[in-house]
Structures are given as C-alpha cells and as structure tokens.
Amino acid sequence: QVQLVESGGRLVQAGASLSLSCAASGLPFSARNMGWFRQGPGKEREFVAAIGWSGDVTYYADSVKGRFTISRDNGKNTVSLQMNNLEPEDTAVYYCASRRARASDWAIPNYSDKGTYDFWGQGTQVTVSS
C-alpha cells in the first residue's frame, strides 16, 4: 500500500523557519519524482517545489524561490522542504506528492502540474502569524 506521510507543520511567527518531512512507503522511491504542493484557505492547490528521482534537479515556484529548499534521502525514503523567512502568505496545508520518473523529464519538465502526480499525502498545516 502506497503511503505518503507529512510531518513538521506548526504555528510560527513571520520570519521563522520550518522543515517539513515526507516519509514514503509502498513504492520504489528512487524511481519517483517528488513534489510539494500547498493549499491556502479558499485557494486552489498550487505547486511549491519538486525534485528529480536522484536529487540532481530541483524546481521551485517563483513565490518561494530563494526561501525554500527541497531535498531527498533515497536511503531513508524521505523528502524534505526547508522553509526560511516564512510569510503569512505561506499559510497553507502542505502536501507531499509523487509521480513516476520518466526519460522525458528533461525535455518536458512539467513538475508544477499537479495532474501529473498520482500519489498524495494527507497534508500538514503550516500557519504563519503576522
């Protein structure tokens, strides 16, 4: 059974840092692209960051570039999201997602398309106060 479990979400003050973690099981982790998405109150789920199967390529939404860092540990089957200088606009439920790595990833880097991910976690709440 495929399972993605996020952890690390908290209530923090603006300017603080948080690290989220996603533990994966039931799938060949090293053959999967991994991503983070988020959904704020009354908003559509949006792309945050993604990482290729080996960790050699990363991709970020413009809104988080320079503040967030995605990483993975294929030995532990985990993917993390280090978030620095958090803003109230970052308040959302953060979801871990997975999709099969493809040879065409280099030519069609559609990591931001949530429709290309087939497995999702239940999310972890991040709240940033002013």
Structure description:
The termini are far apart. The protein contains no helices and eleven strands. By secondary structure, the protein is an all-beta fold. It has strands at 3-7, 11-13, 18-25, 32-39, 46-51, 58-60, 68-73, 78-83, 92-100, 119-120, 124-129. The radius of gyration is 14 Å and the shape is globular. 0% of the residues lie in helices and 48% in strands. The mean pLDDT is 96. Strands 2, 4, 5, 6, 9, 10 and 11 form a seven-stranded mixed sheet that branches. A hairpin with a 6-residue loop joins strand 4 and strand 5 (46-51).
Largest sheet features: 7 strands, mixed
Run of helices and strands: EEEEEEEEEEE
Radius of gyration, in Å, reads 14 Å
Strand-pairing-aware structural class: mainly beta
Approximate shape: globular
Model regions low in confidence, pLDDT < 50 over at least 5 residues = none
Q: How confident is the prediction overall: mean pLDDT?
A: 96
Quaternary organisation: single chain
Give the count of helical stretches.
0
Number of strands: 11
The helical percent reads under 10%
The fraction of residues in strands falls at over 45%
Head-to-tail CA distance between termini:
40 Å
